[in-house]
Amino acid sequence: MEAGAHAAPLLAHGWNPLRLPFSDVPFDLLTDSWSERADPFMAERLRTLSESALDGDDAGDDLPWLPFPTVIPTASGRQAEELLCRCWPGVRGRVPHNRLFPTWLRSLAASGFHPERLPAAGAGGDVDPEALAAALADTGTPVSFVALELTCNAAGGVALSLAGLRTVRELTRAHGVPLVLDATRLLENAAAVVEGEESMRGRGLWHAARELLAQADAVTLSAGKDFGVHHGGLVATALPELADLLREETAARGPWAGLLERRTLRRALLDLDGVARLVRRRLAAVTTLRQALRSAGAPVVDVPGSHCVLLDARRVPGASELRHPVPSVLAWLFAHTGIRGGPHLGDDGLIRLAVPVGWPRKGITDLAGRLSRHFLAPPPLTALVPAGEEDDAGGDPARAVYRPVDGGTRSPAGPAVPRDIVEELEEGYAPADENAGLLAEAVPEVERHMVRLADGDVEVFAAGDGPVVLLMHPFNMGAGVFAEQFRALSGRYRTVVVHHPGVGASTAPTDLSLASLTDSRAEVLDRLGATGPVHVVGASFGSLLAQSFALRHPERTASLTLICGSFRYANREGGVNRLERVVAEDFDRIVSGSGSPRIARDRQRLTELLLRSESMDARTGLRYLDLFAGEPDLRERLPEISVPTLLVQGRHDSVIPLKTAHLMHGLIPDASYEEIPDAGHFPCVTHPDEVNRLLAAFLDRTGRRP
Quick one: how many helices (H) and strands (E) in the chain? Predict the structure, then answer.
């Protein structure tokens, strides 16, 4: 139900709710602010406010519920937070808080403050007064101010009590520390105060709102949550020094919101009856949703939030077996109901279903019914795993990218993740990445370079002098797979390997496409001073890049050698798997097909050599699935390859069928074909003498100097 900045990217690459085909589903809820699709009445209300703003000015009656002499309108609540932090007078010290919204925390950090989270007092929304007293009495780093969020979002929308807020006010005054409130959900908090505190029974909603604000020295507010407008916010204060700095900043930079925005915002803030109705309607809608989900047996968290319902994803049937239950349950919900939710900011195991202000009664009834039916007869879950570098520990889980595990529902945008890759991720498996050592054993004078491009760093190994031979390695193996080619060629050639993104120290750029990978190699060659034509050699996945290089940069290509390569990806049944499994299958094929006593005898040693060259960051590797899902197919372009080409194929290759090699031989105009009778998919390691002999003869035949 809520996504906004929190959930929309969460299920990307086939599991993004924005991409799944639910055009017939009405529950397209992106934020817990209102939308025109949510209620035509809300759209009409905004049009009325905007039209009235065109007829008047931004002066008029004071806001009766806002007890501050200085009020600065802004374009958003986030801008109000940034403005207050930037203009705050005094030292940049500690800021005790009650789990402020992330935008607040970023603004504090950007202005040099040190946020310090306060524990809650029991199950309610109030902070522990003893913990606050201890924080204020600490004589270390000074406290700049205390910041509390009304109807705290991270707590699940639980209100602060007026009594608890007054206690905070007494403590801060006693220590001479200002109190700042985030009043974005002011009216929801006021409604809870009117209903739950004896001293406020029978008092109006706006009276309670004013009492809450009166405890503070300054407030910020985003109008999108309670006031039914798309934009707008404010920062207000009774502190003279802060007021002066706010006015100076505004005078220097101009108004923080446009004239029409300011007028519309003011009219929304003065619409007391209309806003009160909207907020009460939301409160009733949340209660309806919570009760319906509880009746259906959904794992509702016992938190009486005013604008959202929390679900414990770990208690959904089947979720306890999953490593990442939240994204899996979110995808499960959307795939079967068309309703999108978001990860709750306050707990990694919870899902947040937030109801937009102004959501119509019928809409919430239909929505509650759809969710309830889903939980009464839940279908099986699809296991998901993280699939991007941003999913490392400490990253923002709400911005993470996930992929379905093999065996679950397939994504319409890409392949599932094979089981053994999932196990690798969960085990924290780290490949050996001994490529530098393998090369140094073969050629002690091998050079290592790091080339910084605009979109990342690239690791390069090079040895020798003469015409350049550019070796392009397999998908999840590094330069070490070419150790014996370095030994044989570097005496007459400048032998170079450029590590793919995710291999060795090469970082992953934003764009992982054939074009990007190919062009980056041309740029690296330029940086290394190799500006003329080069002999391009590709093995396995590297052969796909080598073909792309020859097609995109024919003027840079002197010759082309393809070792156990194809014109497309995913020739092998099962797709991407752990290298250990691929090697075992390949050696099984060689031994059973050729009866080679040497491979049978040396199998363990050769396996160890191949695994020493294994080097692919698992999460970066999963990003390549987008490239593979697009099935890059160069078959139709093979006749365009204009340089002499050598195809070297292992007869018992378990990855590339012989018919693929023969087809490429027929389609590339100036191509020769060589087959190694007792080789499989890795002849550069298993049959280095044969490969080096064929390669040296081909390079001599095509002209040692391009």
Answer: 24, 20
In the 8-state DSSP scheme, what is residue 389? G
Q: How many residues does the chain have?
A: 706
Contact 8, 20 (CB under 8 A): no
**Average pLDDT estimate for 164-192:** 96
The span from the CA of 98 to the CA of 149, in Å, is: 7
* pLDDT at site 413: 37
Q: How far apart are alpha carbons 504 and 485 in whole angstroms?
A: 19
- Check: CB of residue 97 under 8 Å from CB of residue 116: yes
Q: What is the mean pLDDT of the chain?
A: 84
| 123-165 confidence digits (pLDDT tens) | 778 999 999 999 999 988 999 999 999 999 888 889 999 999 9
Residue type, 282: R
What is the Cα–Cα distance from 570 to 415, expressed in whole angstroms?
Answer: 11
Distance from C-alpha of 260 to C-alpha of 286, rounded to nearest angstrom: 33
d(CA 51, CA 340): 33
Give CA–CA dist 188/283, Å, rounded: 8
| Cα 651 to Cα 692: distance, rounded to the nearest angstrom | 17
> H or E stretch including 532?
none
Q: Which residue has the tokens 């204009």?
A: 642
509-516 LR contacts (CB < 8 Å, sep 24+): 509/453, 509/455, 509/456, 510/455, 511/455, 512/623, 512/624, 512/626, 512/627, 513/627, 514/544, 514/545, 514/548, 514/627, 514/632, 515/548, 515/552
Overall average pLDDT of the 639-657 stretch: 95
pLDDT value of position 647: 98
- For 553-577, write each residue's pLDDT tens digit: 999 999 999 999 999 875 554 455 6
The number of beta carbons lying within 10 Å of the beta carbon of residue 23 is 7
- Helices 541-552 and 514-527 pack at an angle, to 10 degrees, of 70
Q: Name the least confident of 27-31, 448-452, 668-672.
A: 27-31
Q: In what order do the strands lie in the sheet with 456-463?
A: 447-453, 456-463, 494-498, 468-472, 534-539, 557-563, 645-650, 671-676
Phi/psi for 497 (5° steps) reads -125, 130
Half-sphere exposure of 8 (CA within 13 A, CB side): 8
Which pairs from 665-669 meet CB under 8 Å and 24+ separation?
667/635, 667/638, 667/639, 668/638, 668/639, 668/641, 669/639, 669/641, 669/642
Distance CA 348, CA 438 (A): 42
Strand order in the sheet with 233-237: 70-74, 233-237, 218-222, 179-182, 146-149, 94-97, 114-117
Residues contacting 486, CB < 8 A, separation 6+: 439, 442, 443, 446, 461, 463, 464, 495
Q: Which structure tokens are listed for 380?
A: 């099986």
pLDDT of 631 reads: 57
DSSP assignment of 131-166 equals: HHHHHHH--SSPB--EEEESSBTTTTSBPPPHHHHH
Query: What confidence category does residue 428 fall into, taking pLDDT thresholds of 50, 70 and 90?
Result: low
Mean pLDDT, residues 172-185 taken together: 97
What is the SS3 assignment for 453?
A: strand
Taking the complete model, does pTM exceed 0.70, yes or no? no
Phi/psi of residue 219, each to 5°? -140, 155
| Exposure string for 298-307, b = 16+ CB within 10 A, e = fewer | bbbbebbbbb
pLDDT (0 to 100) of residue 533: 95
Cβ proximity of 270 and 293 under 8 Å = no
Q: Residue 4: is its pLDDT beyond 50?
A: no
Helix, strand, coil shares of the chain, percent, nearest 5, are 45, 15, 40
Q: How far apart are CA 117 and CA 101, in angstroms?
A: 12
β-strands 179-182, 146-149: how paired?
parallel
DSSP state of 450: E
Instruction: Using the structure block, give the residue that is written with the tokens 């935008």.
Output: 103
